[in-house]
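Postdoc handover notes: sequence design on the structure in folder B. Input tokens:
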């Protein structure tokens, strides 16, 4: 379940990046839609990083060592 959530959030991040690209191509650099999509993508990325760190801390996922 934990890994499915991670994959789902990664797909939302990619979707948000696609929305920002589409808004950039369609409306130009000063698009509010692009700004909101990129802000949402950054928030999702930071949230996912924190979520993964907590998952590793509580043993829900195990990081692979090199």
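Designed sequence:
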């Amino acid at each position: 379940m934990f890994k499915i959530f991670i994959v789902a959030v990664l797909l939302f991040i990619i979707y948000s990046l696609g929305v920002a690209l589409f808004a950039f191509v369609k409306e130009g650099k000063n698009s509010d839609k692009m700004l909101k999509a990129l802000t949402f993508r950054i928030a999702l990325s930071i949230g996912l990083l924190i979520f993964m760190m907590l998952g590793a801390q509580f043993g829900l996922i195990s990081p692979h060592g090199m």
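Context for whoever picks this up: DSSP finds two helices and no strands in the chain. Don't rerun without checking with the PI first.
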